[in-house]
C-alpha cells in the first residue's frame, strides 16, 4: 500500500490500459503507483496525461515494487501469462484482460501460482458486470427461465476488424475473433448456463475475407500479409449434463453485426442483452422487454475493477473465477484443435 491506499501497477498502457487507468482513478482508496509498456513513446504520453510518477519499459521493475498490491494486465494476449506468473510470484493480486491466457496449460499454472502465493486472480470479463448481464443472471438464478438447455452465442462484426498487429498476428493474439470477441460472448453464455463441465467441442475456422484487397474495414486498413489468424469461427459445445451451446464470431461477416446470446429455457427464453423474454401464459404468447427502473450507466470495465478491489480488501471470491476462465479457454482451444484436425475434441 501507499499512504494508506491500495497501490496499482498497470502493465500495458495502450487503449484498454488507459481505460482501466481511468477506472482506477475513480476509486478513492486506490493510487496508480506506476505503468509499464514496451513503447517509450506511449509511456511518456500516458504518464503525462494521467499524472503518473513511475513509468518503465521493463514490467519486472514495476512488479518488483514492494508497495504495489495489484497488477492490472492490459498487454497483448500472448504476454498475459508471463506477466501474471511474475506478478503472482511477487505476491501481487492480478486482474488480467481477457483472455486470461491463450492456452489452458498456462491458466492452470496461473491458478496454481495464485493458490501458492494466496493471491487473487481474475480475468476481466466485463460483460458479466454490465447492467444487462447482472440482471439476467439474477433472473436465471431466481428460476424465471427454468433450465437453460441450449444457448446460441453470437459475436459477429460486419466490417470491424481491428487493424493493429496485436489483433491480426497469431504470435501476439493467439487467435482472431474467437479470442478477441468470442471469448466475451462465450463467457457470458457459459456463465448464464451455470458453468457446466464440458464433454466435447467441434469447431471450424475460416480466413475468407481478410486477405482480399476489395474488402474494406471501417476501423482502418490492416496488413494483409501479416494477417495469419481466422476472420470467422464457429463451434458447438456439448456439456456433460447433455446441454449445449453454439458459438459464432467474425470480424468481417457479410451479414449484419450481431452481439447476442439466445437462451432457450424450459419456462421462458431470452435474447440478451436486449433482455427480450418469451413465454406462454394460458395458451397465449407472452412477450416482454425488461428494462431497469434505475438506469445504470457506469462502465462495466470500471465496475469490474471496483469488484476486484473489494475482493482483495475483504478476501472474497471473485465473480469471474479463474477455474471458469480455464473451462472457457479449454472450449476455444478445443475449437481450434477441432478445426485443424477436422474432428470432434472429447474431454
From TrEMBL:
Its EC number is 1.-.-.-. It comes from candidate division TA06 bacterium ADurb.Bin131. GO terms for molecular function: nucleotide binding; oxidoreductase activity. SUPFAM superfamilies: Glyceraldehyde-3-phosphate dehydrogenase-like, C-terminal domain, NAD(P)-binding Rossmann-fold domains. Residues 134-269 form the GFO/IDH/MocA-like oxidoreductase domain. PANTHER family: BCDNA.GH03377. Residues 8-123 form the Gfo/Idh/MocA-like oxidoreductase N-terminal domain. It is an enzyme of class 1 (oxidoreductase). Pfam families: GFO_IDH_MocA, GFO_IDH_MocA_C3. The lineage of its organism: Bacteria, Bacteria division TA06. Keywords: Oxidoreductase. This is Oxidoreductase YcjS.
